[in-house]
Specification:
Cyclophilin, two-stranded antiparallel sheet, globular, alpha+beta, eight-stranded antiparallel barrel, single chain
């Protein structure tokens, strides 16, 4: 009888351990009754940032990859971004960021990307593309982004949320 009871207990422990490993990340409550702020995860990575373009403020979410987190470590960053093709603003950094370029197929207004390993691009129009980019983040409400970007050079500040 003790052997059967021990076997059942062992099976229950294994099932419980298996189920704990299968719960999707973020679905286990913290238990402290406080919600996490969206600006920073438990591991200290920044999840959101403020972007001010020619005086108009936006909020953006950051990707979780190495390039986005390396970019976040540069914040706050105040730069003049140049115009290109009537759909984007770009700026070459002094140094490089890790890259994981992919053929994105389609750019959406609000996408924040890394071209090569040192060029930050903020897109304010949507279009198809065959170029390769590393995703850094996305402006949450991009409706007024084209208006804010304006023609020519734009004064842009990336800051922590």
């Amino acid at each position: 009888m003790k052997a059967k009871l021990s076997a059942v207990a062992a099976i229950c422990v294994l099932i419980a351990a298996f189920l704990c490993c299968c719960v999707p990340e973020g679905e286990i409550p913290s238990g402290n009754g406080q919600e996490e702020t969206p600006a920073e995860e438990e591991n200290g990575e920044i999840c959101e940032m403020k972007i001010t373009i020619n005086g108009i403020q936006f909020t953006a979410t950051l990707e979780s990859g190495a390039a986005a987190q390396a970019f976040a470590r540069l914040l706050p960053l105040e730069i003049s971004m140049n115009e290109l093709n009537g759909n984007e603003k770009y700026f070459y950094l002094d140094g490089s960021l890790p890259q994981n370029a992919e053929r994105v197929g389609r750019i959406e207004a609000g996408d924040i990307m890394l071209w090569g390993d040192d060029c930050i691009v903020v897109f304010y129009e949507s279009f198809n593309t065959s170029y390769r980019y590393t995703r850094l983040g996305k402006v949450i409400n991009a409706e007024n982004l084209a208006h804010a970007a304006g023609a020519g050079t734009a004064r842009v500040t990336f800051g922590r949320e």
